[in-house]
Amino acid sequence: MDDDSSSSSQSCERNETVRSRWNPKPEQIVILESIFNSGMVNPRKDETVRIRKMLEQFGAVGDANVFYWFQNRRSRSRRRQRQIQASLSAVSNSNEEQSARSSDGGFITVFINGVAAQVPRGPLDMKAMFGPEDLVLYHSSGVPLPVNEYGFVVQSLQHGESYFLVSSHQPQVAGGRVSNKNMN
């Protein structure tokens, strides 16, 4: 019986020292995402402290939380970039095979996130091309390409032009103000 009471008291003592996981508030995420998207993807120690102080007005946060958030976000970003490039390579390879078989040459070459891709002329089916995720295709001028209710890009892509494929859930930074209309 002594063993049970001593193990339960040790269990209580352990629970008191366990820290709870940091769960950033939406305002903190918007700030962190806007900093990351502005190009600061690996802040130095003094920048981490400055960011933490900014975030503290919305809730408790430590320097380590900020450091690990950026580390995890870089990892997610690299993984996402690899997925997009793999998707584009698969589409490009598939389109090259189809183009070689077809005599009408119904494909054009565009650059998506810096990768050359063969895409069909005419309306582009975003879901068939890039999967079920909510993605937005931007022309290199910064203008998003409109998509109809069926998931097709309304305008045809232009041969040789550059486009950028991004998640529609990323906060948009416009005029120095963060707009997070797509995040729930």
TrEMBL record:
Compositional bias per record (Low complexity), positions renumbered to this chain: 1-11
Keyword Membrane: no
InterPro entries documented for this protein: HD, Homeodomain-like_sf, WOX11-like
GO molecular function terms listed in the Swiss-Prot or TrEMBL record: DNA binding; DNA-binding transcription factor activity
Keyword Transcription regulation assigned: yes
Gene3D superfamilies attached to this UniProt entry: Homeodomain-like (1.10.10.60)
Domain Homeobox: residue ranges: 15-80
SUPFAM superfamilies: Homeodomain-like
Residue span of region Disordered: 1-20
Record-level GO BP terms: adventitious root development; cell differentiation; DNA-templated transcription; flower development; lateral root formation
Main location, first listed in the record: nucleus
Residues within the DNA-binding region(s): 17-81
Keywords of this entry: Developmental protein, Differentiation, DNA-binding, Flowering, Homeobox, Nucleus, Transcription, Transcription regulation
Subcellular location: Nucleus
Annotated Gene Ontology cellular component terms: nucleus
Family, as annotated: Belongs to the WUS homeobox family.
Name of protein: Protein WUSCHEL
Organism, scientific name: Solanum lycopersicum
